[in-house]
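Support request from a user on the community tier.

User writes: "When I paste my structure tokens into the form, the page sometimes reloads and wipes my input. The last time it worked, I copied everything first. Here is what I submitted, just in case something in the input itself triggers the reload:"
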């Protein structure tokens, strides 16, 4: 076998081409799960996989698997991530890991490799969870953490049912959930944070991932006239929501170094300039590497909401959307990543992931690890998301080296 080498130019070109799919009239990238744009992106990926000689299989939650060599499917080295995006997204989040996985298979095939263990390149459905919750849904179903029928019954804010959307875009596959059980799992991903860039390092050997808690909070007050209702007589759902946001920032995130709190979505009803809001519906995203602190943040929010009902005369309802404990990845796999970076003379460090990833789900059923590359300015989930081509190439090279070791194991 010759020395396999990644075709960096083709990887970068595909990132741009996939990144062009799902642009709105204003040019924003929003390829939300199971939309027509997602179908277009899926079709593009599946076409590249087939051109590269992989067998493409789709399971019942729409996870796409590109398998090579075709003769074997059992017990593969799985390289995965996702190609769905958030709203007004960057082009690297998720797509980089899937396309680099495809590039690794192409490099090994090109070099005449005859692996003792097959490779499966996976694009998991609905990692972002923007349209349907929970996030990391496809990999969670794959890992047996969410019943397939419950996932197919998920409903978005327009009342669309996930299973019907999957059928509509032609990706309701026949493969049973979890059928392709990985021997081990690797995910290459942009860091989406500031750590590697600040340290001037090229590679993150990700050994852990923080816990995530997602809730939707609905506060019911009373609509009333903005000009005639005395402050003391108000049951102002808008004010109550504002107090929750301040509490999360000052008393939860502010009080604990490792805890992060975000209210990313908020809407008032009836949403009129001269009407006191009767209802406020918002999401709460809590993160912490320590499970006890994450639990304490959830408890602090629950107590605050109880007190608010009393003080503001409102009613409060919460709905749990997702809850994942912190994860530690496989030390041996993490060691392979660090060693491969070292052999290439790439500056690297072990680190934890602030973002959620499919790897945290697959880690439930197989040894898993992640490889990070730097994000410029630590920016992600934003059109300014960027990673330098040299860093993208280096990450793919490290992925290739580790996979080349694993397929011989
Ligand atoms: O929210 C997350 O961290 C993941 O990207 N869905
Ligand atoms: Mn991602
Ligand atoms: Mn993301
Ligand atoms: Mn993610």
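"...and here is what came back when it finally went through:"
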């Amino acid at each position: 076998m010759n020395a396999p080498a990644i075709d960096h130019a083709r990887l970068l070109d595909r990132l741009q081409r996939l990144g062009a799919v799902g642009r709105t009239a204003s040019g924003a990238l929003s390829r939300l799960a199971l939309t027509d744009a997602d179908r277009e992106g899926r079709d593009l990926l599946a076409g590249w996989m087939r051109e590269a000689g992989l067998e493409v299989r789709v399971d019942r939650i729409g996870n796409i698997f590109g398998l090579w060599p075709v003769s074997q499917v059992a017990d593969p080295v799985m390289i995965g991530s996702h190609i769905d995006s958030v709203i007004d997204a960057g082009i690297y989040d998720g797509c980089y890991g899937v396309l680099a996985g495809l590039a690794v298979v192409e490099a090994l095939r090109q070099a005449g490799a005859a692996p003792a263990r097959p490779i499966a390149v996976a694009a998991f459905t609905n990692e972002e969870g923007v349209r349907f919750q929970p996030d990391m849904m496809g990999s969670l179903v794959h890992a047996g953490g969410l019943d397939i029928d419950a996932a197919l019954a998920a409903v978005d804010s327009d009342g669309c049912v996930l299973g019907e959307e999957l059928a509509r875009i032609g990706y309701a596959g026949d493969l049973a959930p979890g059928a392709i059980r990985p021997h081990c799992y690797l995910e290459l991903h942009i860091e989406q944070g500031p750590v590697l860039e600040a340290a001037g390092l090229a590679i993150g050997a990700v050994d852990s991932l923080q816990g995530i808690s997602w809730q939707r909070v609905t506060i019911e007050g009373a609509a009333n006239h903005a000009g005639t209702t005395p402050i003391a007589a108000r049951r102002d759902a808008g004010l109550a929501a504002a107090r929750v946001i301040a509490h999360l920032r000052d008393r939860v995130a502010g009080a604990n170094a490792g805890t992060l709190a975000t209210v990313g979505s908020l809407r008032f009803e009836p949403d009129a300039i001269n009407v006191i809001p009767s209802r406020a519906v918002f999401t709460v995203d809590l993160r912490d590497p320590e499970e006890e602190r994450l639990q304490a943040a959830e408890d602090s929010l629950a107590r605050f909401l109880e007190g608010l009902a009393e003080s503001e005369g409102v009613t409060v309802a919460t709905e749990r959307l997702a809850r994942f404990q912190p994860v530690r990845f496989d030390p041996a796999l993490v060691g392979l990543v660090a060693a491969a970076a070292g052999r290439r003379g790439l500056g690297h460090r072990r680190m934890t992931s602030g973002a959620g990833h499919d790897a945290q789900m697959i880690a439930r059923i197989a040894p898993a690890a992640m490889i990070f590359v730097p994000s410029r300015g630590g920016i992600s989930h934003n059109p300014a998301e960027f990673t330098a081509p040299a860093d993208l190439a280096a990450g793919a090279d490290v992925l290739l080296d580790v996979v080349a070791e694993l397929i011989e194991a």
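Agent notes: The reload is a front-end session timeout and is unrelated to the input. The CA atoms of residues 173 and 397 lie 32 Å apart. Residues 8-210+326-406 form a domain with the Aminopeptidase fold (CATH 3.40.630.10). Escalated to web team.
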